[in-house]
């Protein structure tokens, strides 16, 4: 159970990743994280787990898993171990993360610290990879944040810690295999860049075999525990040091610890213990890359890193939800924004990753399957991940690139690239040693990040994720040839080139990193990627402080080597850039923020309500199916350059099946791939429809509920009688409330469904359609075509006949007939006619005042114009149609007079010149009275 | 057939065809080129298509011989081949590729020598798309080729609707676009094309070829019928009728099919001989009802030809003739009354009208008839007023039933 849970957790990140394009990188990062536990990834994952467990156990699958894991394993120890690494980090001070420092500052400024931290982590990881010196900064930032985050819960970290440890071990292990200690950190970073697919394989291994490091961590609790224990003293010390601060931020600490551990002593321990595991893993791994352990390690590390980023984001969300602090909430919100974006991208990314894996090794497929198992976790992570999307965003650029590079490296097995990576690692280490300089540099950079900028940055990152996910798959294959898919964002490649990141220094760093990658990277090879990533980092460091230059120079040289390989990366960067640019616009940002906030709220509730292990499994299956189908599509596509067009997808395999059991659900427009846990299956939807039908609440509520039902139907691709019934119900309600836009939506869907042969009240609705077209559209062509398309039997139907008569009454201006028909309208025809009554009456009074002389009795007008004799109930209640008519006539400028018999008459001659349409009393400047606040409040109450 | 063809002969035929195409291009012979690239008019089996069937490696042959025109020639041969095999969807796809290549070349040619060929391409792509859509529809696939042809023709239009000598060919492409849009039912897409044709100041509309002008006027006239813009529609359709080749009866009929309802709505009735000559007898009863004031006949005629009228889009126009029929009916009552009782001829009792309608088996109550009378007055079909108290329609003594005289109701 524990192992599976863990796996699931890992998977969740992958899933998340898979959903949006950027997610690919993210997923990769997860596995990578595990491997590169040293790096930030593990931290992130651990954090997430912690959050989940502590705050939203019910909510997240991960959470439960995390708990289980923690219980099984020596959670405490693992955290302790994690802490130790942190301590070491602090000592070293020179981790990779100058950017992280800046981020932290930003986070403190505006955003919730938790959020900032999460995002920073991601960056940190990247940064760390790029520059060893940045590590210190990260640690510092973490510390600072920890107090804020403390609320999230210390207890949680335990589970996370375990994970982290495992992860750390793996990464360490990999790192060791790949390189020396110093190299390890770098490796982790590089690994983060590597493909998610690799990660997936890793995961699989664990599931298959307890010993494998990635998955093993769960099973290999013994090993982990052992290693942690060994490290434990150091960890404890760390805890002591940080305890006050870290209460809330245990997760972060853990992560850092892991990172530090990886860097410092842990590496040795892990290297020894884990190395074996890793070797075992390699053997087990389907990947044929065993020969290139380093590469594989890198890949794993990269994947783990990415996944960790996802986890982190998720974690951050979870904490945000749980945590009471405003800061945390802020963070969550930010995360949320990013999340939706990421989510969409993730699914795509995963499939791609898989593909790449497949390409690399035929054996990778099984790995993929295994990955599916972790999906549950990933899911949960994804839910949580929303908050941390920002982090991902910032980090995602480099991470994704790295992942790609790593993948490519794994495929190519280029020794040169590896060596370059190694060099980079060494350089990073050297930088880290020069902690003081790094710190100073980071701090220097900090001022650049103002709070608003940070926020924007997060937003931007989020957007980047969104766009990137879509773009990723295609770009990977063959950017130039790929067919355009509607779903792709607007990523203008040109834009990417032009884009600059003036706002944030962090951004600039990213950009710089990206740019080098662009130049250098032709392929996605890991080696290339890593160097590219490093190079940006190095550049960044150089900017921040020239002292670091020595390290930077080395990195640059490496970059140059790497650059030759990677070409495709350019595309990625372009996408990112474009996404960033899009995100930059303040309105966009605001909107996104808003949306994300709503999103998170909802997520929290939904996750609480509906997650069970079964659900998890189901979701996992769905995800696997999805991934598989995507994968199949990929493979079918062949490298021939045919992009993965949306149209080519096998949607049947991608269709999700909802597991939510709640009948009531608020409508929220999806901003990411739907989460099965939040989607209601058909039988629940039936209940929901019944609930709406019998509900006594107002239209706004019903409309909202029906829209959410419709959404659930759509995402599950349910098209049957129920679907028709839902749309019909909604259309009727909309007609009754005069909500024409909503009615039109339903009508167009109904038309499609009826055409598909699904039974319903199609004749009734063709009558409505006729009336609607006639009364609201000027184009006679629409009317003609809808009349021409009426089936023969429909013309015999009373409702349709009535509609046709109304039409002819309107076209001939026969107001008497119109109001006669109005009185005798079947079904809801009268509701639609209501919308035309005012116009008809005015036409009629104009006609009457011109045609009649000298007078027309008001009584007659009231009769003819439908003021009396229509609503007997109202009249019985004392409502006087005649009075109403008088009022209406006066309001429209008619001149009334009393004749000799005391009968009120309309003076037609005078009236004919004075008639006018009155200004609507409830007119609002924006033209839509339904948007008026007062009206809204009165209706909502 | 093809099996009997020797490889050498097939090779020779294909090479011959290719060299003719290339020669036509190099010698700027638009007419020859146009005849060479018309795919859809070819019968199922031609010497060339047989050769293509016998020599499956023709793409390479074309590519090797004329590499600079391979983009055009290879898909063109493929298209001819697919078309001869009745694989119209494939033929369309290939032809669109060839057409794109041709358009690319066409843009680079400074003189419009290839206009005829360009027009052939525009026509061919539409015809092939229609065939392909029919094929796709029968196999249950989404018939989207005509739409694709529309967007390709928009590109062609963009290449032609520029300053310079090529503009003269723009109207032809416009008409092809109209045909596609009318068939697809997306007539609103016509608007942008019309705007660019009619707002161009550097090119007089009259300078376009007559045949294109007639087609253009026909379609824009139809659009105006949809918009119930009868005066403009009358103008455009009349222009089309006047300039149409008198020999092409079917085109004249098409124009009249829309012009007659438009004329009816502005009070101009056609002679029966015209209807007979152009086989437009579905309008005969409508015309008769207008002459007689026979509302029942009008309704019957509309009912009988409802599908036809709805499809062509004149149903609503004809329906609006009802008021004119009422007018005619009241006028007849007035004439009878004048003969019987000249003093009170200008006062028509509502009961009389109701009774007349009853004779026509049209059941309307007094209120409705009163409303109709009011409408007639309101719309200037009757001069006078209605006295509600006494339920009497009082006609003006001067010209109580004004003629429309070319003005719509």
UniProtKB/TrEMBL annotation, chain A:
Residues 215-230, 457-466, 505-517, 556-565 have a biased composition (Polar residues). Residues 739-922 form the PCI domain. GO terms for cellular component: nucleus. It comes from the Eukaryota. Signal peptide: none annotated. It holds the Pfam family SAC3_GANP. This is PCI domain-containing protein. Residues 485-495, 586-603 have a biased composition (Basic and acidic residues). It comes from Digitaria exilis. Residues 302-316, 467-477 have a biased composition (Low complexity). InterPro entries: PCI_dom (IPR000717), SAC3/GANP/THP3 (IPR045107), SAC3/GANP/THP3_conserved (IPR005062).
Automatic annotation (TrEMBL), chain B:
SMART domains: PAM. PROSITE patterns: PCI. Signal peptide: none annotated. Residues 214-400 form the PCI domain. It comes from the Eukaryota. Pfam families: PCI. One of its GO terms (biological process) is transcription elongation by RNA polymerase II. InterPro entries: Csn12-like (IPR045114), PCI_dom (IPR000717), WH-like_DNA-bd_sf (IPR036388). One of its GO terms (molecular function) is double-stranded DNA binding. One of its GO terms (cellular component) is transcription export complex 2. This is PCI domain-containing protein. It comes from Digitaria exilis.
